[in-house]
Amino acid sequence: MSDADAPPSLRDGYLPIEEHGLIGDGGTAALVGRDGAISWLCVPRFDSDPLFCGLLDRTHGGAFAVTPEPLTGAIQRYEADTGVLVTELTGPNGRLRVTDALTLRAGADLSEDVAAGRGELLRLIEVIQGRVRLRVRIEPRGGAACYPHAGGLGLRLPRRPELELHLASSLPLEDVDSTHELTAGVRHHLLLSWGAPGHRFHPKSPEELLADTIAVWRNWMRHYRYDGPQEPLVRRAAITLKLMDHTATGAMIAAPTSSLPEAIGGPRNWDYRYAWIRDAAFSVYALGRIGMGHEAAGFLGWVLDAVDRAGRPRVLYDVDGHPPPPECLDSALEGYRGSAPVRWGNAAAEQRQHDVFGEILDCAYRWVRWGGTLDAALWARLRRLVEAAAAEWQTPDHGIWEVRTPGRPFTYSASLCAVALDRGARMAQGNGLEGDAERWQAEAARIRNAILEHAWDPRLQSLTEHLGGGGIDASLLALPLRGVVPADHPRMVATTRSVIRRLGAGDGLLYRYLPDESPDGLPGHEGAFLLCSFWLADNLAGQGRLDEAVDLFDSLCARANPLGLLPEQIDPSTGAFLGNFPQAFSHMGLISTGINLRRARTNRANS
Questions:
Q1: 459 C-beta neighbours (distance < 10 Å), count
Q2: Is 310 helix (H, G, I), strand (E, B) or coil?
Q3: How far apart are CA 493 and CA 206, in angstroms?
Q4: Burial per residue of 312-348, b for 16 or more beta-carbon CB atoms within 10 angstroms, e otherwise
Q5: Please, are residues 260 and 578 in contact by the beta-carbon 8 Å criterion?
Q6: Which CB contacts under 8 angstroms, 24+ apart, belong to 150-154?
Q7: What predicted TM-score, i.e. pTM, was given to this entire model?
Q8: Could you say which DSSP state residue 503 is in?
Q9: Neighbour count for residue 401 (Cβ, 10 Å)
Q10: Residues 477-481: contacts with CB under 8 Å, at least 24 apart
Q11: Exposed, middle or buried: residue 15 (CB in 10 Å: 0-12, 13-18, 19+)?
Q12: How far apart are CA 414 and CA 408, in angstroms?
C-alpha cells in the first residue's frame, strides 16, 4: 500500500489540513476529507453560517460522513479538468468509490456572471471490490431533527430555522446515522439540497447531474492556455481559483474557510471567506494570463460597484460587495486541534490599506489590454482613485499584512500607489481619456525615488517595510513584479539577499516578517507564507539566477498535497499545512511564477 493509500492518521483527533480536497459550485465550497467526511460546508454561500464545521470542532462542529467500517485505506483524485472529487475508501473486505460534486446547471457557462450552482451536494457511491459495511452519518452543526419527506428525509436545524434541507437517497435512510451492507457492483447516491423544498420528482438521474457538472467544468477549461513548467499543477491551480470565484457577482474570496490557524494552538486565526481587493486582483490577473480574461472584467465591475456604494475602496467585502459582519469570537467551538479562538467576520474591513488603489487600477489596465473598454462614467471612478493614490501615499495605513497596531507608512502601500498613478497615466495616454497623465507619471516617479531613498537602510543593506526605516518585510519582493523597482536594481538585489538571510525558514520557505522586529499587535508566531517564496523565485529569475529560481519553484510545487492544493502557510519544522485552505494567494503565486519562469527560459534561449 502506498503512503497516499494509507489509512488517514489523525493529529489531536483531527484529520490534517492537507488531507482534504475542495469542491464547489461558484456559490459555496466544501472540504472533503480523505476519510470520506465532509467537515466543512457553508450554505447557501461561502460566507454563510457553516452547515458542517467539524474541521473546527470534532465534537460539536458536525460533518457528513460516508465511510467503510473500519477504514483501512483511502486515496483521492479529481476528475480531470473539473471540480469533481473522487475518494476511494478501503475496508477490510472491500473497496468503495465516492464521487463528490456541488452540482452545476446543465449548459451553464462559468465565464458568465450568473449563478451556476443548483444548490445541492451529490455523493455517488459505488462498491468496486468485495463487500463494505458502510456508515452514513449526516450531522449538521447544532444537530438536526429528521422526518420523512418526498421519498427521502427532511432536516430541521435548530440553529438555522430558515434553511430547508432535503436528503434524497437510494439507500434506505430512516435516520441521520445508519449502516448498510453493500457488495461489489452496487451503486447508490445521496443528494443533499437546500433552499427550495425537495420534491419526489427528479427529472435527472444522479449520473446525469454528474455528467452535466463535468461538462460545464471542461467547457470552461477550453479557455486555458499554458505550456510552462509544472503544467499539471498550474492547470489544477486555475480550477482551484475558479472554485473560489462567486460566479453570480464576480467576487473572488481569499479562501473558503475560517479560523484554520497560522500556528497550532495560537490565536492568529482569521475568517477568509470574503473578497479582499488585493487577493482577488492578484488572482484574476493570474487567471487572465492563462486565458481566463473574463474573470478580470467581472471582478473590476464588482469592485467598482462596491466602491461606488462605499465612496472609497474598502479592504474587503462580502461577495455582494457589502461590508462583512463585525468580527466576533465563537466560544462554542474549540478550533482546529484546539486552536482557539474561532472567528466569524473580519475586523480588517475597517482598516485603511492604500495598496487597494494600485490593485484596482492595475486590474483595469490589464482589462483594457485584454480588449475591455472604458466609458466616461467608469473612467471617472477610476480617475478618482488615481488622485486618491497621489494624495495618500505618504499617510500611514495598516499594510498588506493588516497589522493590528497603529498605522505606519508602509513601503508596499506606497509602491502600489505608484502603480495606481502609472496605470492611470498609461490608460489616459493610450485611450485619449481626460486626466493629468504627465503629473501622475511624475508623482509615480517621485514615489519610486522615495522608496529607494527613504526605505533603504544602509546598515541592513536592504529596503525596509516603512518609508523611514523599520524591519524587513517579504512584501518588498513584490516591488519588481508590479514594475516599481527592477529586480536587478542593486538595492533590490541586496534586499533579496537580506530577505533570504533574515526571513528564511529553511528549504526555500520565508516568513513574511518577524513580529519581534515588526510588531503587528498580536501574540504568538506563524508559519512560513508560501506566496512570499513564489515571489522570491520571481526575483531570482529577474536577477539572472534562473536555475536557482527553477529549483525553488519545483520545491514549492512539491509541497502541494496529492490533489495539487496549497495552503496559506507551511510549518517549517514539519511541512504540515497551516492557515486557511486552499489559499487563493498561493495558487495565484504558483501560476504567475510558472509564467515568469517560462518567459525567462525563452529569453535565455534567445539571447
A1: 6
A2: helix
A3: 57
A4: ebbbbbbbbbebbeeeeebeebbbbbebbebbbbbeb
A5: yes
A6: 150/197, 150/198, 150/199, 150/200, 151/200, 152/191, 152/198, 154/198
A7: 0.96
A8: H
A9: 18
A10: 477/532, 477/535, 477/536, 477/538, 477/539, 478/412, 478/415, 478/535, 479/411, 479/412, 479/415, 479/451, 480/538, 480/539, 480/542, 481/535, 481/538, 481/592
A11: buried
A12: 11
Position 1 pLDDT exceeds 60: no
DSSP letter string, 248-264: TTTEE-S-S-B---SST
Q: Give residue 201's pLDDT.
A: 58
DSSP assignment letter at 20:
E
| 3-state SS class at 528 | strand
Rounded CA-CA distance 214/212 in Å is: 6
pLDDT tens-digit readout, 104-133: 999 999 998 899 999 999 999 999 999 999
Q: Residues, the chain, total?
A: 607
Contacts of 409 (CB under 8 A, 6+ apart): 394, 395, 396, 397, 466, 467, 468
For 294-374, list the strands marked E by DSSP: 316-317, 328-330, 342-344
CA separation for the pair 578, 528 (Å, rounded): 9
Give yes or no for a contact between 166 and 153, defined as CB atoms under 8 angstroms apart: yes
Structural contact between residues 276 and 316, judged by C-beta atoms closer than 8 angstroms: yes
Q: How far apart are CA 550 and CA 534, in angstroms?
A: 10
For 482-491, b where at least 16 C-beta lie within 10 A, e where not — what string? bebbebebeb
d(C-alpha 438, C-alpha 101), whole Å = 53
Asked whether the beta carbons of 234 and 594 are under 8 A apart, the reply is yes
Name the residue among 562, 549, 553 with its Cα closest to residue 604: 549
Residue 460 CB-half CA count within 13 A? 24
Contact 288, 245 (CB under 8 A): no
For residues 462 and 452, give the distance between their C-alpha atoms in angstroms, rounded to a whole number: 10
The grid cell for 71 is 477504514
β-sheet bridge partners, residue 578:
569
What angle do helix axes 584-606 and 546-557 make, rounded to 10 degrees? Answer: 150
For residues 388 and 312, the answer to whether their CB atoms sit within 8 Å is: yes
At position 79, the amino acid (one-letter code) is E
Distance between CA 244 and CA 5 in Å, rounded?
A: 28
Tell me the residue type at 141: R
- What confidence tens digit (pLDDT) does each residue in 375-408 have? 888 899 899 999 999 999 999 999 999 999 998 9
CB 345 within 8 A of CB 268: no
Cα dihedral 160, 165, 171, 176, rounded to 10, equals 10
Question: For residue 119, how many C-alpha atoms fall within 13 Å in the half-sphere facing its CB?
Answer: 12
Amino acid identity for residue 457 in this structure = D
Q: What is the DSSP letter of 166?
A: E
Q: What CA–CA distance (Å, rounded) separates 320 from 605?
A: 47
Question: DSSP string covering 107-150, please?
Answer: T--TTSSS--EEEEEEEEEEEEEEEEEEEEEEE-TT--EEEEET
**Chain position carrying cell 520565508:** 510
Q: Are 173 and 136 in contact (CB under 8 A)?
A: yes
Q: What is the pLDDT of residues 399-457, one digit of tens each?
A: 999 999 998 999 999 999 999 999 999 999 988 899 999 999 999 999 999 999 999 99
